[in-house]
Specification:
The complex is a heterodimer. By secondary structure, chain A is mainly alpha-helical. Chain A contains 13 helices and no strands. Chain B has 13 helices and two strands; from the N terminus they run ααααββααααααααα. The longest helix of chain B has 32 residues, at 92-123. Chains A and B meet through α3, α4, α5, α6 and α7 of A and α2, α3, α5, α6 and α7 of B.
Chain lengths: 353, 334
Amino acid sequence: MSTLGTTPVKVLPKQPWAATRRDRSITFAIFVASALISFAVVVATPMNGKLAYIFIFFVSLLIIDFIYFRVKLGRAAGVDSFFKTLFTIAITLAIFPIASILWEVWVRGYKGLHWSLFSTDMKQYNFTGPVADGGLIHAIIGTLIIVAIAVLISVPIGILTAIYLTEIRGRFSRPIAFLVQAMSGVPSIVAGLFILAAIVYPLTKSFNGFEGSVALAILMIPTVARTSEEVLRLIPEDLREAGLALGGTQWRSVAQIVVPAARSGLFTAIILGVARVVGETAPVILLTGGANVININPFSGTMESLPLYIWSGLLAGTPEAFTRAWTGILILLAMVMILFATARYFGSRKVGK
Amino acid sequence: MSSTQIVKKKGVPEKRAITTKPRFSDKVFRGVVTSGGLSSLVILGLILLFLAYESISTLRAQGMYFLTGSNWDAVTGANGHIDFKASHFGIASMLIGTLICATIAILIGVPISVMSAIFLTFYAPMAIRKFAVTIIDLMAAFPSILFGLWGYFILNPVGVYWAKLIHKYFGAIPMFQMPTGPYFDRSPFVAGLILAIMIVPIVTSISREIFAQTPLDRIQAAFALGGTKWAMIRAVAFPYARSGVVGGTMLGLGRAMGETVAVYTVLNIVFQTNWHILAGAGGNVASMILLKFSDASADEVKALMAAGLVLFLLTLLVNSIANVIVNRSVKGRA
C-alpha cells in the first residue's frame, strides 16, 4: 500500500487477511441494508419507537451478515461472522449508557451553571427557589475538606500495606493480600454504619465532617493499597539489590530507592483512591449531616458535600431543585474526570521516571 | 596496598563487621510497615465487632425472625425506648429482593460484559480498543449518585416501557405477571437494569485480563488447524477463561448486592416479598437502611445495624469466594 517515490521504498509485509476495499464496502452495504430494513419494518408494522429501530437493526444485521457469509464462504464463515457481529453489538450496548449519561448530565446540568455557584452558599436561599439564586461553594469546600482528611488517613495506611506486601513479604502477606481484596468489597453504607457505631454513638454523639472522612478512608484504603502494590511490583528487583549491595539498610533502600522510583505510580494510586470516594454518597448522608453554609471545621458542626447537595436536590423534588442536582452532578463529574485524566497521565509514564 | 593506606588516614571509621542481624532502623521500619499492613485485618475486625455489638439487642429479641420475617415495625415501650420484644424486625423480603435485583443485573450485565471483553481482546483494532477501554474504566469511576440520578430520570421511564412490553408479550410467565395492577414504576427490573450497567466495567475488565492471558501457542494451534476466529474462541479461549469469568461475575454480584444510592432512587421499597420482577415493589437491604435511617430513632438504628451486619457478612462471603477464584485464574495476582 505504500506509495512509490524517489525515496527508498519501505517494504511492508503483505497481509492477505487484511480487509480489502471490497470487504469494507460489503460490510458497509450490510450495515445500510439493516438500517433500511429496520426503517421499513417500523413504518410497515405496529412496532415503533427508538427501541424497535435499534432492536430490528441489530437482529437484521446479525441475520444478513450470517446469510451473506454462509452463502459465500460456507457454514463456518457464516457462524464466525455472526459472532463477530454479536460481540460488536455487545460493546455498543456496553458503551451506550456511558454516552447517554455524559449527554444527559451536560444537557440537564449546564442550565444551572452560573459564576455565583462558586462564590455563594445556600444560606439565604431555598433549593426550590429560582436556579440563579445561591451556589454550592459550601458543598465544594466541604467535599475538599472531607476528602483531604480521608487522604491523610488512608494514604499512609494504604502505602504501608503495599510496602508490606512487596518489600517485607512476611508470613502474613497472603492473608493480608486477601483481606485487602475483601475490604474493597465492603459496601459504602456498611462503612457509614460502622462509623456510626464506633465513633458517633459512643464518642461524639453529633455529626461532623471528620466522621465522613474516616468512613471514606475505609473505602479508599483498598484502592490505594492495591494500586500501589501493583506499582511497587513493577520496580525491578535489581534496584533493591543494588541498594542493599551498597550497604544500605532495607529501610534506606525502600525509602530512597524503591518509593522514589515508584513515585508517579503511587501518585496515580492516590488519585484513583480519591476518584473512588469523592462521589460516595451513602456515608456522607449517614455521617456529615449536611448544611447550607460554609463550615471549615471538620471536627465541629455539620458539613455539606457535593454528593449530599445533589441528594438534597433530588429529595426536594421540584424542577428547580432537580436542575440544581444535575448541575451539582455536572461539577462532581467534571472533578472525577479531571482526577481520572490525571491518573491516566501519571499512570502512563514509565516507572522510574 | 591501597587499603592499608586508607586505614592509616585520619577520621576513617573502622571496617564494619559483616552481619545479617537487622539494624535498629530496620527493626523500626519493619515494625511500622507490618502494623500498617495489618490495618486491613484490624479494620475488618472492628467493623464486625462494632456492628455485632450494636445488633445484639435486635438479634437477641428477634432471633431467627430477623432473617425469616418480613415485617418492620418499631413499637415504642413505656420508657420511651423501643420495645425490642414487641417490635418486629425481619429482613427476609429485603434479602430476597437484594438477590433478585443482583440476579437480574448478572443475567443482563455479564453476557454483555463478557462479549465486550472478547471483542476488545480478539477483534478490536488498537485504536478502538484503547478508546473503549478508557471509556469503560472511566465508567468504573462514576459515582453511584450519578447512576442514581440518571436511573431515576432517564432509565426508569425507559425501563417502565420495556417492562410493559415484556408484560404484554411474555405475561404468561409467572415472573412477569402483575397481580397488583399496572404499577411498573421503580420495579426490581429497573433496579436490576441500573445494577447491570454498573457492574459492566468490573466484569469487563476482569474478563479482559483473563482472555488476554490465553496462551498464544494454543491460539495459533487453533488457527493452524484451520479454525475460524469463533472456533478458536470456543475451543481455546472459553475453556481457558471459564473459571476466571465466573470469579469476575461473583465480584460483580458482590458489587450489585452492596449498592445503595443508585438502587434507592429506582426501587420502591416494600416490606413484602415480591417475586414479580416487573411490579413496582421490591426489597434491598442497603437501600432499606438508607430509607429507614432518615427517621429512625437511636434504638431503631440498632436494628438497621443488624441489617448492615447481615449485608456485610453476605458481601464479604461473596467477595472472598470471587477473589479466590479470580486469583487462581489470573496470573500475577496475589
